[in-house]
Amino acid sequence: MTRAIDPAYLSPTPILDADHPTVRGFAREAVGGRTDPVERAVALYYAVRDGLWYDPYSPFYKPEHYRASRVIKAGRGYCVQKASVMIAAARALGIPARVSFATVRNHLATRQLLEYLGSDLFVYHGVVELFLEGRWVKATPAFNRELCDRHGVEPLEFDGRHDSIFQPYNRQNQRFMEYVEFHGTHADIPLDEILAAWRRAYGDHRVDAWIRMHETKGSARPRDFLAEEVVTD
After folding, report:
1. Is beta strand 135-139 parallel, antiparallel or unpaired with respect to 177-186?
2. CA 199 to chain centroid
């Protein structure tokens, strides 16, 4: 029996704009001449993982900050924004896709990012889920290869058949990422839910300060994550 898929997992939304020419072009370029859904999903994963750089200081408080076509044009984003691109591009290719969330404890980060957050908890970390060969498979395209090399972590691989989530240890067998809590799946990016969770975890004062920083800086990048000091436990 074929498992029924909710049409929402194939449909464009204002944020997951799978019907946008930029998203469709990104998807076509990523998969090339591949026709097998698993091979297409794998190719798309690497295009998002390494083609869009991870930037935890990307603006985050408006729906358009997560719009897949906008993130592709920016060339960077934090985990939920990169997940948005992969989900929208997957839907453009006819692959059902959704987002799931987890809170993770990051044992390897930069001193500046930990001070910025006031915590080593990354609340509502975004994970892509793709429906392939009759089951949902997790993919985590957040950290590009260059960033992983800098932090001494093996880049996450994805084969389209097994879940790809953060590994617990880095190359030196130090603690890297710990999954603390899971928050369920969504057909679209639940921005209000994410912001509410951040305010509970990090405090209104801190979240409001981040928003003011972006409003003040405008289109300029407020911080350079790649230039920051890597720290370990």
Report:
1. unpaired
2. 20
Helix, strand, coil % in the chain, rounded to nearest 5: 40, 20, 35
Q: How far apart are CA 196 and CA 68, in angstroms?
A: 22
With beta carbons less than 8 A apart as the criterion, state whether 38 and 133 touch: yes
Integer Cα distance of 198 and 28 in angstroms: 35
CA distances for 67 relative to 12, 123, 129, 176, angstroms: 11, 20, 18, 29
Q: Do 65 and 219 meet the contact criterion of CB atoms below 8 Å apart?
A: no
CA end-to-end distance (rounded Å), the chain:
49
Tell me the C-alpha distance between 94 and 28, whole Å.
12
C-beta separation of 72 from 113 below 8 A: no
Q: For 133-188, how does the pLDDT look when each residue is reduced to its tens digit (9 = 90+)?
A: 999 999 999 999 988 888 888 889 999 999 998 876 667 777 677 888 899 999 99
Task: Using 50 as the pLDDT threshold, list the residues of the chain that sit under it.
Answer: 1
| CB 72 within 8 Å of CB 26 | yes
Lookup result for tokens 């083609």: 51
Helix (H) or strand (E) holding 35: none
Q: Is-contact 77 26, C-beta < 8 A? A: no
Question: Cβ(93)–Cβ(33) under 8 Å?
Answer: no
Please check whether residue 98 is in contact with residue 87, taking contact to mean a CB–CB distance below 8 angstroms: yes
